């Protein structure tokens, strides 16, 4: 009796692609090593153009977590960029980086290891950088802004009008980090609370709004959520937290009585006290 012939069944590539599109990023990496057919499907333009996953970006650890909370780390070697800080505010997939061996800056996608070199610049705090669709803005604590736009050969500097009127050169103007909402940046004037400075990245112009917040609060934290600008204020003496919307009527959105917290989910209306990770930025994982 002759030996039985071993047969294999290969799934249609269209079905393999649909399976791959549903995997978190860490599982997609593993799936590429299943066989040549799966690797070909993962590398196809069809999968690369449609693949999406969500995660968090950790600049200090050069790593991300995908939607399954699996941590993926890349170790820069030689001239590979070493990620600095910012995630782009619009598509959440470009980061700012620098070479580990040379005085170079890069803008790119760490998941593809594709980088664009941009003009080099030294800043004291790169975490104050904001990446927009075709522009990078660094809003320094002294009120000075540095901008770079796609196609420019160098950086431009713009001094905010508030910095000219500073009563004290020894104090910083903008301790809180800038917030991006649409094509505008917002920052609270830390010397003259509760005033708000707005920078329009399209016209490179400033506007200044006074008394956007009630006096007497101890701490402020600004943030953008669903195209709206909010500021959280902590009233330590009353052990209360207020979240205020700064657009339209600038009314109080929430009054809360919890001071031991890490984050507040405005959709669920609950505090999240389970801090499993260091501070991270949300990121969309795409392959194109």
UniProtKB/TrEMBL annotation:
<dbReference type="InterPro" id="IPR001810">
    <property type="entry name" value="F-box_dom"/>
</dbReference>
<protein>
    <recommendedName>
        <fullName>F-box domain-containing protein</fullName>
    </recommendedName>
</protein>
<dbReference type="GO" id="GO:0004842">
    <property type="term" value="F:ubiquitin-protein transferase activity"/>
</dbReference>
<dbReference type="Pfam" id="PF00646">
    <property type="entry name" value="F-box"/>
</dbReference>
<dbReference type="InterPro" id="IPR036047">
    <property type="entry name" value="F-box-like_dom_sf"/>
</dbReference>
<feature type="domain" description="F-box">
    <location>
        <begin position="5"/>
        <end position="54"/>
    </location>
</feature>
<dbReference type="GO" id="GO:0031146">
    <property type="term" value="P:SCF-dependent proteasomal ubiquitin-dependent protein catabolic process"/>
</dbReference>
